[in-house]
Amino acid sequence: MTTGSSVSRHLGLDLGGINIKRVVAEGDGNVWHILSRDHILTKGDEGPEAVTRRLVDFGKKAMDKWPGIATVGVGVPGLYYPATGATKFLVNIPGAWDGFPVGARIGAALGLPTHLINDARAFGLAELRLGAGRGADSMVGFVMGTGIGGVVAIHGRVLQGHDGTAGELGHQTIDPAGPMCHCGNRGCLEAFVRADRIAEACGAVGAEEAEEKARAGDAMAVQGLQQVATHLGIGIGNTIVSVTPDRVVIGGGVAGALDLLLPTIWEELRRRVHVTSLDKVQIVPATLGTWAGAIGAAIHGAETATGVG
Q: Average pLDDT of each block of 10 consecutive residues along the chain (309 residues)?
């Protein structure tokens, strides 16, 4: 890193249910390079104190190896309090996380400005700056897995809302009489297209097997993915008429099956979207894989510190 240049280094930590991922990113304006990536086990059953110590220790090792890190971003799988940097509710990580001062603990231990971001918004920010959304003025993203995360970006900036929850596209209601969602609402998009629903619709043990069976021509799996694509098309259509994005980015475990879903998605969009043109909308798979959350967290820390995020 050249002294006096505008290049700066930033640490991103992505807190997941199984792994904590870490990247060190170097940025110069909107040009980003990933210098390092690593991961360790979360061991979430040990509780918030132990998990936070693990985040701190993992961060310190990065700072020892990569001097000059200026900020820290932490992606969290759930809700948090932006004003305090405390967590509120984390999906798939046990323990009393409500009000736990994750950001303050990490910031004090590392001596750096530290900012939290929802992991789906971190995914979207990474794809917007470095991945499948690069160059788009407006973008929406869906992260498909055990739940459905979402992100909305307008004029090159990811919307956070007053509490970091803007862009929860998986919790739009697409059928008021539909199945219950884990959030407590009935008929959310997530309740139709999360991984266990995909597996169930396709007669498979998991979403990966559902894709394999569909590619092999299994009739139930093919029909099941068509049902998933229909519901996803409704959800994407709702975001198109609301946001008119240039690009729709699909990430998570289902991204690899996007080619199987797209014909039905586009059929549904043409059926439902009439107030804006679909000609300039692209639907593309995410490109950064499982590291998008950590990359986006690093970028979020950097942009928040400079007033961009």
A: 69 97 92 96 97 98 97 97 94 94 98 97 97 96 95 96 94 96 95 96 95 97 97 98 97 91 98 96 96 98 85
Task: Specify the DSSP element, H or E, that contains 106.
Answer: helix 102-110
> Strand locations in the chain, DSSP E?
8-15, 19-28, 31-41, 69-76, 78-81, 86-90, 114-118, 139-144, 148-154, 157-158, 247-252, 282-285
Asked if residue 152 and residue 106 are part of one domain, the reply reads: no
Residue 249, helix vs strand vs coil: strand
Both 113 and 234 in one domain: the answer is no
Q: In this structure, what CATH number is given to the domain that contains residue 24?
A: 3.30.420.40
The model's pTM is 0.94
Judge whether 173 and 134 are in contact, CB under 8 Å. Answer: no
For residue 108, the enclosing domain spans: 8-122+291-305
